[in-house]
Design brief:
By secondary structure, the protein is mainly alpha-helical. Helices cover 49% and strands 12% of the residues. A hairpin with a 2-residue loop joins strand 1 and strand 2. Helix 2 crosses helix 3 and helix 5 runs antiparallel to helix 7. The longest helix has 23 residues. The protein is globular. The structure holds fe (ii) ion. Fe (ii) ion (FE2) binds next to helix 1.
Length: 198
């Protein structure tokens, strides 16, 4: 059985950028529903005792397994996303990841503008990502539940741009939400840990 992992912070910790109300619905309803759906879908199948990562990789791109892929990938993406956020985060990183942003993405200011644009231009539901691929940093976006995990990329940071991530606080103003997350919440320590494993 898959379980909903605990949030790495209190539900009110990210306010006012992300309110406790948004966190309560996003984590307690949406993320939980993906976990519950996945448990129902794997019951009695070959995936019943498989790891989350192996289910995602085995079902990606298979139309007859779309339900299982979508729920498994959304469980993984959300657990990853919570770790990408912290109170007092955001702004310019330091260390190796900062050097790579300079060499691969044109410096922090350009990274910031391009990451925001990547998130804003994901049409409909999806995710904006900072990833490492082949020793290089890249900005990518994925629709719906799709995840860098199945694309040979190591996820470093993500921003959820499904409307459920921001609509209660920002309504249709996705750009305001994305820029506030980049400026105030991104957890660069988590990104550095992920880069070290890439
Ligand atoms: Fe979400």
């Amino acid at each position: 059985m898959f379980t909903l992992p605990p949030l790495p912070f209190a539900e009110g910790a990210l306010a006012p950028v992300i309110s406790a109300n948004t966190l309560g619905f996003h984590y307690g309803k949406h993320h939980k529903a993906y976990v519950d759906n996945l448990n129902n879908l794997v019951k009695g199948t070959e995936f019943e005792s498989a790891t989350l990562e192996s289910i995602i990789k085995a079902t990606a791109g298979k139309p007859d397994k779309a339900g299982m892929f979508n729920n498994a990938a959304q469980v993984w993406n959300h657990t990853f996303y919570w770790n990408c956020l912290k109170s007092g985060g955001g702004g310019k990183p330091s260390g190796k990841i900062a050097d790579m942003i300079d060499s691969d993405l044109g410096g922090y200011d350009k990274f910031k503008a391009d990451f925001a644009q990547t998130c804003i231009t994901q049409f409909g539901s999806g995710w904006g990502w900072l990833v490492a691929e082949g020793g290089t940093l890249k900005l990518v976006k994925t629709p719906n539940a799709e995840t860098p995990l199945t694309k040979g990329q190591t996820a470093l940071l993500t921003i959820d741009v499904w409307e459920h991530a921001y609509y209660l606080d920002y309504q249709n103003r996705r750009p305001d939400h994305v820029n506030a997350v980049i400026d105030k919440l991104l957890n660069w320590d988590f990104a550095a840990q992920n880069l070290a494993k890439a």
